[in-house]
Amino acid sequence: MTGGALEAHVGVGRRAGFRLDVALSAEPGEIVAIMGSSGAGKSTLLSAIAGLVRLDEGRIVVDGWEVASSRPRRHVPPAQRGVVLLGQEPRLFPHLTARENVAFGPRSRGVARDVARGDADEWLWRVGLPGSGGHRPDELSGGQQQRVAVARALATSPKVLLLDEPLTALDAETAGDLRALLHEQLHATRSTTLLVTHDAVDAAALAQRLVVVEDGAVTQEGTVREVLTTPATRFAAAVAGTNRLVGVARDGGWCARTGDTEIVLRSADSASRAAAREDGTPLAALVRPGAVRIEPVHEESWTGALRLAAQAAPEEGSWLARIVRLEQTPAGARIHTESPAVAVDVSADAVAERGLAAGLPVRLRVAPADVRLVAAG
Amino acid sequence: MSGRREARGFVPPVLAVPAIIGLALLVLPLGALVWRVEWTTLWRDITSPEAVSALVLSLVTGLIATAVCVVLGVPLALVIARSGPRLSAFLRVLVTIPLVLPPMVGGVALLFLLGRTGPLGQVLDEWWGVRIPFTTTAVVLAQAFVALPFLVLALEGAMRTSGVEYERTAATLGARRWTILWRVTLPLAAPGLVAGVILCFARAIGEFGATALFAGNAPGVTQTMPLAIYTAFNGSGVGQGTAVALSLLLLVTAIVVLLLVRAWRPPGRERPDLRIGAAR
């Protein structure tokens, strides 16, 4: 029951001034993750492919069949496309049992009642809910409901499966279980899948390819590994959990000016040095938040710290920064600094020991071994 | 349990006085009615030919009117629920007018439309020789006129609340429009439909004003229970004992209907809501 190929160019003019214009494709059985800032148009993209939103421009081909196009105008109703959309909410029909919910798709396509129900029980077993067929949705937990919704979507043998942040509404543990279930079932059924997510873990665990959508357009596309190791935009870098600083190549290193200060970074690896070979080429420095060390400056005010820094000789791999925000993370705290915007991960006791707080000037330091340089587009 | 005490909140206790007077205003008259019932002759009164004919006529016309309201009201409620905000507000006003209008006015209006000199009545009479006023058909029409808004508004509220998300889900799962209507939209609106049908039937059974003007008061043809009760107290035809007995019957019907609504629970859902346009 391998899924079909998808070839989509979706142009939808939404609000005034905002346009969605995205082209993407998926091989049969391929899982493509889509990530993007909120409001980037990811959900509109999926709705258009499902047929719930009409195209203003473009063309959608599912399994060799053109289901939508702008010229000539063509819009196959959602029911006939063989494309199933599963969102954040399971949206199980509240008046039907779990079994009837799963059997709904096949029944709508004319499968006999007994056959559809038998298959539904089999699907419920596959998603880890054997014997729950008789329960109504309100008798199931949120995670169980989403499992039923997954079963209901897969039971229709969709040509293309669209998942719109299916794990977002669940707590971390339940989401983990469901991620494992999706991994297992999507591979077992070889369903062609587009997975919208805001979590790089989902993309890495489930998808082969990753498409980054920002402001209604694709900004980066490639294998999940490629995108996560060489993020091309700040958003992609944030997704990959790394800092991306834009500058230019100089003397085989990276250099950027912010205000009066100049920051110079060098990298230890040869690929980075090759990228920085020609002076003046736009270059992005990638630094993980955990690799940045934070040092106290013996000065509480920003202007005072700047004066101190001006007296000392500029140092490679080190710069003066000001803390703007602290965020809690599972491992401690993430400290956001500005000019340039850099995130630094520290342990909770380090925050307490050094009295790190918003507004405080600090010195940041990065070792060449922790810097990667890539060409910036 | 302290929970009960806490649930009272901070309402001034003295408000209990008008509250009790209000309750008395609603309950005492009905108590007086029950008190007046001649229990010894009750069965004979109810089974008297006039009473039986009024009872049967009321039930038959009430059921037909309710059926007409379902056939016309469900699509109308759907149209209103799925229209844009402006159109739906306008349509809701149109539907609400008969609800707030004195039924007498409705009867006069029906007579002007379907009477022998009315625009539609004239056409019906000349082309097909059909005359509606003062027939059983007129009773059904009058009942449907006053009862339809109850069904439409109750159902429309329910349909608006359930929204279109489930329908979208059903569509991507491969269900076509009619399948979605039968298997998703209507079942989801079932509480509103049940409440609407019950209100609609109760209103149809109790209809008096429009029926009196548009259908008249002919025993066996247009004399429904409310008209029979009125006639009895005007001193012609039906005895007063019969009138009281019929009133009691209507009262019991109303109580049974309310109990049915309370007891009926759609599978896996809340109890149906009897408020008009409740869910808005």
Outline the structure in words:
The complex is a heterodimer of chains A (377) and B (280). By secondary structure, chain A is of the alpha+beta class. Chain A has two domains: 6-229, P-loop containing nucleotide triphosphate hydrolases (Rossmann fold), CATH 3.40.50; 242-375, Beta Barrel (OB fold (Dihydrolipoamide Acetyltransferase, E2P)). Chain A has twelve helices and 21 strands. In chain A, a hairpin with a 2-residue loop joins β17 (318-329) and β18. In chain A, α3 packs parallel to α5. Chain B is mainly alpha-helical and 280 residues long. Chain B has a single domain, classed as Orthogonal Bundle (MetI-like fold). Chain B contains 14 helices and no strands. Chain B is globular, with a radius of gyration of 22 Å. The two termini of chain B are 34 Å apart.
The whole-number mean of residue pLDDT values of chain A reads: 88
CATH class of chain B: Mainly Alpha
Q: Helical segment tally of chain A? A: 12
β-strand percent of chain A reads 25-35%
Strand order of the largest sheet of chain A: 7-8-9-3-10-11
The helix-and-strand class of chain B reads mainly alpha
Q: In angstroms, what separates the terminal alpha carbons of chain A? A: 41 Å
Report the sheet with the most strands of chain A, covering strand number, pairing sense and barrel closure.
6 strands, mixed
- Helical percent range of chain B? over 70%
Summed over residues and divided by their number, the pLDDT of chain B gives a mean of 83
Biggest interface and its residues per chain? A-B, 29 and 21 residues
Q: What value does the Rg of chain B take, in angstroms?
A: 22 Å
Oligomer: heterodimer
Count of distinct structural domains of chain A: 2
Largest sheet entry of chain B: none
Helices and strands, with pairings:
The complex is a heterodimer of chains A (377) and B (280).
Chain A lengths: L5 E8 L5 E8 L4 E6 L5 H9 L6 E6 L2 E5 L4 E2 L2 H4 L1 E4 L11 H11 L4 H14 L15 H13 L5 E5 L7 H18 L2 E5 L3 H7 L2 E6 L2 E7 H6 L4 H7 L2 E8 L2 E6 L2 E5 L4 H6 L6 E6 L5 E4 L5 H10 L6 E12 L2 E7 L3 E5 L1 H7 L6 E5 L6 E4 L2
Parallel strand pairs in A: 3-9, 3-10, 7-8, 8-9
Antiparallel strand pairs in A: 1-2, 1-4, 4-5, 5-6, 10-11, 12-13, 12-15, 13-14, 15-21, 16-20, 17-18, 17-20, 18-19
Helix pairs in contact in A: 3-4, 3-5, 4-5, 5-6
Chain B lengths: L1 H6 L8 H21 L5 H5 L2 H33 L3 H16 L2 H12 L4 H10 L7 H27 L2 H8 L4 H12 L1 H17 L2 H6 L10 H9 L6 H24 L17
Helix pairs in contact in B: 2-14, 4-8, 4-11, 5-8, 8-11, 9-10, 11-14, 13-14
